[in-house]
Design a protein that fits this description.
This protein has helices at about 5-15, 40-55, 60-70, 90-110; strands at about 20-30, 35-40, 75-85, 110. By secondary structure, the chain is α+β, with helices and mostly antiparallel strands. A hairpin with a 4-residue loop joins β1 (about 20-30) and β2 (about 35-40). The relative contact order is 0.22. It comes from Phenylobacterium parvum.
Length: about 120
C-alpha cells in the first residue's frame, strides 16, 4: 500500500466515524480535587490531557501540581454527560457545551479544566 493510499484510507475512516461531544471530569482522589471540561471528542480527550500532564505542559497549574505530587495512578477520567450534537451548528454545540459545563460545575462543585 502506498503512502497516499494509506492517507486516503485514514482520512476516510476519520470522516466516517462520529465523535462524541460532552462534559468530562478529571479527579485526583488523594488531593481531593476534581476538574471539569468540555470536549468535542470525548474518545480522545483523556489521552490529550494525560499527554500534557506527563510532559509538564498542562495549562491548568493546579492539576499539574497534583499530578506531580501524586502521580498518574491517582488520577481518574470520567465522562459526565454526552451531548447529542447531530443537528446543531458549531456555534450551538459550543453554547450547549458551555451551558452544561456551568451546570455540572455547580452540581459537582468542581473547578474547570483549561484545555
Amino acid at each position: 500500500m502506498s503512502r497516499e493510499d494509506r492517507r486516503a484510507q485514514v482520512q476516510a475512516w476519520k470522516e466516517g466515524r462520529k465523535s462524541r461531544a460532552g462534559i468530562f471530569r478529571v479527579a485526583c482522589a488523594p488531593a481531593g480535587k476534581a476538574w471539569l471540561g468540555v470536549s468535542r471528542n470525548l474518545d480522545a480527550q483523556q489521552n490529550s490531557i494525560w499527554f500534557s500532564l506527563r510532559h509538564g505542559g498542562s495549562p491548568n497549574r493546579e492539576m499539574q501540581a497534583a499530578w506531580k505530587a501524586h502521580g498518574e495512578d491517582a488520577f481518574a477520567f470520567d465522562e459526565v454527560e454526552e451531548i447529542d450534537v447531530e443537528e446543531l451548528s458549531a456555534y450551538l454545540v459550543n453554547q450547549r457545551l458551555q451551558e452544561r459545563l456551568k451546570h455540572w460545575c455547580a452540581e459537582l462543585g468542581a473547578g474547570r479544566v483549561v484545555a
